[in-house]
Design goal:
Oligomer: heterodimer
Number of strands of chain A: 0
Order of helices and strands of chain A: HHHHHHHHH
Mean pLDDT of chain A: 94
Structural class of chain B: alpha/beta
Radius of gyration of chain B: 19 Å
Number of helices of chain B: 10
Largest sheet of chain B: 6 strands, mixed
Shape of chain A: elongated
Structural class of chain A: mainly alpha
Low-confidence stretches of chain B: none
Number of domains of chain A: 1
Strand order of the largest sheet of chain B: 6-7-8-3-9-10
Radius of gyration of chain A: 21 Å
Low-confidence stretches of chain A: none
Strand content of chain B: 15-25%
Number of strands of chain B: 10
Helix content of chain A: over 70%
Order of helices and strands of chain B: EEEHEEHEHHHEHEHEEHHH
Number of helices of chain A: 9
Shape of chain B: globular
């Protein structure tokens, strides 16, 4: 029953979120602030994780492709497809659920318990729209760029392994990268990350918005936001893969 | 004028507000007093629209508020200033930005006009050289002053304050009380203050509503308090030995 009630509350909140902003100028300002907060501030973590994961991925594939019958260029192909299909969308969003999701839930949760949200409402502002919509749109705008950046840096990470070790030659790695490239995989990855952007920001906002109590409850909301965002990301990953790739 | 007519509010089986009827006049500081849990905060939240009464009506200058649509409520809320218990200042914005926020939202004024109004309001509440500071960088008393400045920046017709001097030392509390009283008289605002601080009541109250177990138990002025034989009110007001002594001397 609690789950059904929460789903109802979530959709009720989303109806309030997707309404017309009171002041477009202020909305745009908030949108730019959120781009910085959600997107630009996540560049470093995405870049570091992507480079190292690309490198590790290439090493592990190379170790597992010891069989001489398997062409060495498949190491580059595997690294590329794994980055595009799964890592740069799903895994990066699992990391962002932790970073961005907990940040959103604690920010809105703190605003809720310190009556800042009530203050907005009394001023005649729709707090859900004012606080949450810029976050959702900013994530929708920036996450695809983070996705593309992650793909590129992951591949670069693999290339560094090819350059500095002898597990695969640079020629084979680059040949593999170009071999049997399916452009739709990038589209698939971008579609997934757009869904995940909405999931992370809306679920985290939901848990923050309905926080009641004190600092302890803000922490609990933050944890719930991350846990449920991750579960929904995994679920939608399965659904979207089934719908788009099979 | 704000009128409350037969307002009832229930939370499950808990009947928190029982058929409350009263009115609050412009240019006067009306105080709602009562013990913790008596329902005074619920009443204030019903008046400002954060809670919807289960029955009854609330009128702002003869305009029904509780059952009106969002557009109309928004219009009335722009005429309403609110000072929350903790100030409720936006912690990510500076003092100046907090006060300017309602102007940015609801006026088409130029930047200089807005700045002039912000400076005027901050000066009116006695805030100097703190425009660029963040709420966490100023004292509790200053936060309350900034909250009052934000509440009056749009020239409200109504001002509601939820325990405006809680957590403040007696001297600062009196300054905040006097500020609320001065602003009320100066701009002819209908002011409602929710408190259980009897010093505030004696300092600035023009009319008093005593809420007891969800009922509007007693209504009068601060002078009437000394002459009433209402047991519950006497128990609440003259709880301390000092107050008992004052009453004895006064009567």
């Amino acid at each position: 029953m609690v789950i059904i009630a929460n789903i109802g509350k979530y959709f009720f909140l989303m109806i309030q979120v997707f309404s017309r902003p009171v002041n477009k100028k202020i909305f745009f300002k908030r949108f730019l602030q959120e781009i910085e907060q959600i997107g630009l501030n996540s560049i470093w973590i995405v870049a570091i994780v992507s480079i190292f994961m690309g490198a590790v991925l290439t090493l592990q594939v190379a170790i597992n492709f010891e069989n001489p019958l398997i062409p060495r260029y498949l190491i580059g192909l595997s690294a590329r497809d794994t980055m595009i299909l799964e890592f740069s969308s799903t895994i990066i969003c699992l990391i962002l659920a932790g970073k961005v999701g907990s940040n959103i839930a604690s920010e809105i949760g703190t605003m809720k318990i310190t009556e800042q949200i009530d203050a907005l409402e009394i001023m005649g502002v729709n707090p859900a729209n004012y606080l949450i919509l810029p976050k959702i749109l900013a994530a929708l705008f920036t996450f695809p760029f983070l996705n593309l950046m992650s793909i590129i840096l992951g591949i670069v990470g693999g290339l560094l392994i090819a350059v500095f070790t002898d597990v695969v030659s640079v020629f084979n790695y680059i040949y593999g990268l170009r071999y049997l490239f399916v452009p739709f995989y990038v589209t698939y990855s971008l579609i997934k990350i757009c869904f995940f952007a909405v999931i992370i920001t809306s679920i985290s906002s939901f848990y923050g918005y309905y926080t009641e109590g004190g600092a302890l409850e803000v922490g609990k909301s933050s944890t719930k936001a991350v846990v449920y965002s991750i579960i929904m990301i995994l679920l939608f990953n399965l659904i979207l893969t089934q719908l788009l790739l099979t | 004028m704000i009128e409350v007519v037969n307002v009832n509010k229930l939370f499950g089986d808990n009947h928190v507000l029982k058929d409350i009827s009263t009115s609050f006049e412009p240019g006067k500081v009306s105080m709602i007093i009562g013990r913790s849990g008596s329902g005074k905060t619920v009443l204030l939240k019903c008046i400002i629209g954060l809670l919807i009464p289960d029955s009854g009506e609330i009128y702002f200058d003869k305009r029904e508020f509780t059952k009106s649509n969002i557009k109309f409520k928004t219009q009335i809320r722009q005429e309403l200033g609110m000072v929350f218990q903790g100030g409720a200042l936006f912690t990510s914005s500076t003092v100046e930005e907090n006060v300017r926020f309602p102007l940015d939202l609801f006026t088409n004024w130029s930047k200089s006009e807005k700045q002039k109004r912000v400076d005027f309001c901050l000066e009116r509440v006695g805030i100097k050289n703190a425009n660029k500071l963040y709420p966490t960088e100023i004292s509790g008393g200053m936060q309350k002053r900034v909250a009052i400045a934000r509440a009056i920046v749009l020239n409200p017709k109504y001002l509601c304050c939820d325990e405006p001097n809680s957590g403040l030392d007696p001297q600062t509390a009196i300054l905040i009380d006097r500020l609320i009283s001065e602003i009320t008289k100066e701009y002819n605002i209908t002011t409602i203050v929710n408190t259980h601080d009897m010093n505030s009541v004696m300092e600035i109250a023009d009319s008093i509503n005593f809420i007891f177990q969800g009922n509007n138990w007693w209504q009068g002025t601060k002078d009437d308090i000394f002459n009433t034989d209402n047991k519950e009110l006497n128990d609440f007001v003259f709880a301390s030995e000092l107050c008992k002594k004052i009453k004895k001397e006064t009567t």
